[in-house]
Design brief:
The complex is a heterodimer of chains A (about 55) and B (about 180). With about 55 residues, chain A is mainly alpha-helical. Chain A has 3 helices and no strands. Chain A has helices at about 1-10, 10-15, 20-50. Chain B folds into 2 domains: about 5-130, no CATH class; about 140-184. Chain B contains 8 helices and 2 strands; from the N terminus they run H-H-E-H-E-H-H-H-H-H. Chain B has helices at about 5-35, 40-45, 55-60, 65-75, 85-90, 110-120, 130-160, 165-184; strands at about 50, 65. Chain B has a two-stranded antiparallel sheet. Chain B starts with a helix and ends with a helix. The chains are: A mainly alpha (about 55), B mainly alpha (about 180).
Chain lengths: ~55, ~180
Amino acid sequence: MIMRKLDEFSSEEEVGPLSPVAISLAAGISGAVAAAASHSFDTARTRAQCVILPKV
Amino acid sequence: MSVGEAFLAGLVGGAAETVMTSPFELIKVRKQVTAASRAPNASAVAETAPVSPMITKLLRRYTLDVKSLTQTVSLLSVLNHKHPNMTAALQEYPWMMTGTGNPPSAMDVKRPLDVASLEGYRALWRNLRSGLIRDCIYGGVFFSTWQFLHEAMVGWKAVGMNPLPRYLKLSIDTEFSIHLNLDC
């Protein structure tokens, strides 16, 4: 019941919008983390894209 | 939205992105390779010759490096007596279009129509699996990290507000009552 009550209030509406600078920084940090996590797969894909295989 | 939901949404979004952008990525990478390569275009420096009609059909505007073909033919010269015109026969074979037996470099196959005619249009979506893994991981990690940071920033801002937002006040009251119950 308490959890249902918690859901009734939206944190976004009450707290209001965050500053664009803070959001941009958060997006930049997230992008850096995601790029680091997917870097090796990125390399594998890019190398595979440069292999030419004639269809005949 | 929870961090887990954001991760799943990122996975699905990354998969959709891969399928839609794979042809553009392929062309982009090959153009980048061309721009970054120090080696001059083979046809610009070497002695070149027109290729057979079959190879022209596969890859337009491609010219053959005569030096490579001559070297290959001289390597195979011990077999010359078995074929009257080995050079012409080799030039007819698509895999010998570069004169060495290697396929053309990425620099020579960078236009979408060239990719479609030499490798087939399905090559635009080749290696989809590695692209899927890459984009799913990127999307999932990006959106889950962003959601985590967003929640943290909202919480940080809420703590400094006066009066406290209702959701935060309620959650503090709940924590407090749970602790009280545990203590009792």
